[in-house]
Every structure is written in C-alpha cells, then in structure tokens.
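G., the chain you wanted modeled:
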Amino acid sequence: MNDTYYEFFCPVKLIAGARALETIPFELGALGAKRPLVVTDRGVAGAGLVEKLREILATGGLEIAAVYDEVPPDSSLAAVKAIARTYRDAGCDALIALGGGSPIDTAKAANILASYQTDDPAKYSGVGNLPRRLKPLLVIPTTAGTGSEVTYVSIVKDEERGVKLPFASPFLMPDAAVLDPRMTLGLPAQITAATAMDAMTHACEAYICLAKNPMSDAYATAAIRAVSANLLHVLDHPADAEGRLALAQAAAMAGVAFSNSMVGLVHALGHSVGALCHVHHGTCMSILLPAVLEYNLEARRDAIGELLLPLAGAETYAATPPEQRADKAIAHLKWLKDEIHQRCGLPRTLSETGKVQESQLEQVAAMSLDDGSIIFNPVEVDHDEALAVLRRAW
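Predicted structure as tokens:
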C-alpha cells in the first residue's frame, strides 16, 4: 500500500430499498431518456421480471422500446453487436441492464457500439480507450454478487478468436444502480450462496491487496459484515426481503471496494478455473478464498486478523488474542463454507465441483500467472506456488 497517495472513485448513483424500482421513470426522465432498450437473459425474462419493469415504466408514462433477452451465461461479442443493432433499429435512447454479471457486462459493452455508432468494439478495448461519455445506462442487478453495477470494467468473449475482450473506462460506469430486493427473491439457494461469496471475496481481497486504502477498507469491511450477518439467514429464509436487500447492498459495496483497491490471487486462479473447467465464478471464489488467505498470511497477518471483526463479530474478535485473529478469520470462512454446503450443497473443494480434474491444475496455475489480478496480490506468485494453493483447494 502507498501510504501517501491513493485515488478513490465511485460516481454511480445507488438507489436501494423496497420500492427502488418505482424511481426508474424519474431517473430516465432526468437523463432525458424515453425509449429504453432492456438487456437481459432468458432466465430473467422467464421469471417475469421484464414484465414487472414494463408495469413500473407504464406508471411514469414510459414504455420499453425493445427487449434483448438472448444474453448468454458468458457475455459474448455476438450478443453485444446484436444489442447495438436492436438499439439502432428500435430508435432507443438508453439501456437498462436487468440481470446478473453477464447481462450487465454485455450492456456496458453494447453501449460503446450504440454510443459511438460503430460495429467494431475491439478498437476500444483495453484501459481508458473510450473518448467520451456513453448513452444513459441503468442497471438492475438480479443477483447479489458481481458488483458490476458499480464498476468501470466490462469483459466480453470473442468466440471467433477465442479470447476475452476487456474494456475499462470511467465512462462504462452506469448512471444509476437500482437495488430492489424483489429482483433477487427468486434466486435459487446455491446461486444466492455463490454470488454472496463472490461479494465476500471481492471485499476480502480488496482489504488485503496492494492498492488498499482507507476508503476502500471502509466499503470492504461493511460488505463483509453484511454478508456474514445475512447469508445463512437468507438461505434459511429465502423470502426475507430485508436480508436480500442487505446482500444486494453488500455486493455493491464490495464492488466499490475492489474497483478502487483491486483483487488478487483468488481472482487470478478463479478466472482460470472458470475458463478451463466451466465452474461458476462465485463457486470458484468461495472454494479458493481460504487457501489464498493462508498463502498471503505472513505478508498480511495484521490485515487478515482485522477481518475477524466483520466476519465473526465484536465478541469473538475481543475474545481472540491479536496474534491468533488471522488464523481465526480463515477458520471462520472455512466454517461458513461448511454451513453453506449443508444448506444448499455449494462445493467446498475443487474436486467437489465434479468439473475440475486434478490433472488440470498445472494448466490452471500456468494460465493464472498471465491474469492481471495477480499483479495486486500482496505476495508474488510463481507457478509452483500457484499450483500448491490449487492443490490445497483441491
């Protein structure tokens, strides 16, 4: 961490609460938009959430100009181009991303094409390559995990070339993120758990990574506290709107934290496991987090020890001698994984996923060394060390 200088940036307006959706007509009006294109996937559309949004827009005298509900689970360049065509053909003037990380990332990238009237997004990929503001974009998350609603990054897959195109620019940030518990009430238990542990990992890595700062620390610890206090309760009581809202807010807070302080080895390994073995990202995060914290323990013992307070509460923190707090924090995360597994079967190890072969770990380790996230890990990592962490998580 640089003690003398840091930057912190989060201009996204957050609208959260039991009737947050009802503000959308006002928000669109304030942005001068009247004909939004809704970007979503089949699952979200099939759950009736697009129709719910349509009803709410109608109360403000607005209507959805077009709907694109073909976003794949892994956001793709083909979908991005199709959305931009739909935007132009239907005479749209704003985008509303309704869904999890894939629809949000896809809508962000499609906004580049819609705003710059181009069919070639590749020339805008990379960091800071967008020349000016984009069209209005509102985001309504239907999962509580990725934090993409408050970040300046979008990653889409170019299937033809077999690569992922990253985009990073402050202009990619949505104008507003709408966190309404009605949008996550129908989430299956395992997706609820996996996405919440994605947020937990964002926050834990944000708190120990090299670019951490006092502002990102505040968001990270608040996110950890919210997930710790609410996840098991929501798994036991899935219709609890207050608990659902708390998890949605935790995901957004963790997103603010990690987009300012970055993530590390958990994400570098998790991205590779996901790409090679097709394991859900949040599941990868949940499995790998304790093993990576153990790897970073000696370099970040004090910081990991401080995580015990938001993880386990004031009584446990106060009753634990300072030199034991880091180990206790990691043990608490392992306990949490076991509790989640009992409730919904979320895998605790890479072998439990049924998708990762032990023979693949060498390749995963090699791929991870090329992942940008690894730069911000507090401890340098070579191939054998990455492999050792993977074997521990196996």
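The chain has a mean pLDDT of 96.

Shout if anything looks off.
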